[in-house]
Specification:
- By secondary structure, this protein is an all-alpha fold.
- It has one domain.
- The protein is 79% helix and 0% strand.
- Helix 2 runs parallel beside helix 6, helix 4 runs parallel beside helix 7 and helix 7 packs parallel to helix 9.
- The two termini are 25 Å apart.
- About 3% of the residues have low confidence.
Amino acid sequence: MSTAIIRFARFDLSTTARTQPARVLLPLLFIVVLAATLPAPGLGIVVGAVIAAVSASIPFQGDERGRLDTLYGVAPIGRTAVVLGRYVTMIAFGIAAVGVGTVTAFVSASLRHQELPWPLVATMLLAAVACVGVSYAFQLPWFFLLGFTRGRPMIYIPVAIVAVAGFIAGRVGWLEGIGLADVLAPAPGVAALVLIGVIALLGVSAAVSVRVYRRREL
């Protein structure tokens, strides 16, 4: 990872934290509240992933309100570094969101004297990685192309996908009769395939984002 990418990612994280603290902290607080109140143990992990997915627009909103895109256009760091640094920023936020959900899930299960078996945690974490990775891969090029205001409808797509998937699972009975003891840890091959797929998808997404952002009028 080049120095320019690291420098931009640090600038991006610090700028977002300073200028939009509520937009960063409120989603994390929302994760804690939901993870602590949901009856099923372990769901907080997926909640963290979903919140991370719908928060992809936060730094782009800061760019637009602070006219930072103009600064990026004249700064001697290059647009490629801006794009890749933003991907680092979003991945860091995704890790933080899933981490908060995971910790809250364990604490909540402990306080309720509920069992939170490792196979369930592993399955939830793999689902969280897939959710965050796929949502970022599709959303970020859109925001780099259009900016926050015109690209805002993309925010609701991850929520719609999760809602439809949950509705379908409930209607066809996929979740009926499944207990915590019935959940198996993902097979190593499946887990590796999911991780490789997410990394490859993010790589393609970053390449597309670099291409469209270079052509965008700032």
